Q: What sequence folds into this?
């Protein structure tokens, strides 16, 4: 099943553009759930550029589906996550100058700090996921660090120009899925996925969840959040995956 996690960060970005109290990302989360979202994702950044502590606290009290918090490995953020207790924390890289999260977490280079963060989160009863590029060594390192899941960065595919390059990136994603599954990880996907490009990725066997934000929020400005989520859910549901027959069915 292709599950949809809706990232509501950019609803808060619109709010912060005027330093106002609307649109409320919590309200957007409720509308997304009413539209069929299987989960809500938010990123509590160190600089609080969009989602605030208040947002995180109210989301925890109101989200009825899976609540996924994206977080850096900063010790203060990890402490906040352990106190908030979302259903899942996805560890991501974070740079102050970036517009959005670009590329994956370097689990190999940051191995010691990552393992410390994962242990604290798991001790608090929180599921953990690593946002990594489709590189076998990073996926394997994520399994060794104790993560239960990985979210594969799909930006390489989303930004590829021309069918040949897109096909090469799809092959890379497919190989990453195989590595993740062989390591015993649940495999998710996210970054740069839109209504125009999501279908080929959704057709790959092995992805169970897609975290999509900017494209849905952009569509919601035109048609409303419920309808925007319904449209994306329809694309994920209708993606054609190969039929795998069991030995006794062949």
A:
């Amino acid at each position: 099943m292709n599950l949809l996690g809706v990232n509501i960060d950019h609803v808060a970005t619109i709010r912060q553009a005027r330093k106002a109290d609307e649109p409320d990302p919590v309200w957007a989360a409720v509308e997304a759930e009413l539209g069929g979202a299987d989960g809500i994702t938010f990123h509590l950044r160190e600089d609080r550029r969009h989602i605030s502590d208040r947002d995180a606290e109210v989301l925890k009290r109101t989200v009825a589906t899976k609540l996924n918090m994206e977080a850096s490995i900063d010790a203060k953020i990890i402490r906040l996550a352990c106190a908030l207790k979302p259903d899942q924390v996805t560890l991501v890289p974070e740079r102050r100058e970036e517009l959005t999260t670009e590329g994956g977490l370097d689990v190999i280079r940051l191995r010691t700090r990552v393992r410390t963060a994962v242990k604290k989160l798991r001790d608090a009863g929180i599921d953990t996921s690593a946002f990594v590029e489709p590189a076998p060594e990073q996926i394997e390192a994520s399994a060794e660090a104790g993560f239960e899941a990985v979210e594969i960065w799909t930006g390489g595919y989303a930004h590829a120009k021309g069918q040949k390059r897109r096909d090469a990136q799809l092959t890379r994603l497919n190989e990453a899925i195989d590595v993740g599954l062989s390591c015993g990880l649940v495999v998710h996907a996210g970054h740069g996925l839109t209504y125009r490009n999501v279908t080929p990725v959704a057709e790959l066997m092995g992805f169970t969840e897609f975290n999509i934000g900017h494209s849905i929020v952009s569509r919601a400005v035109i048609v409303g959040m419920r309808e925007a989520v319904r449209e994306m859910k329809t694309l994920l549901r209708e993606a054609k995956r190969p039929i795998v027959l069991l030995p006794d069915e062949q």
In short: The mean pLDDT is 94. DSSP finds eleven helices and eight strands in the chain.
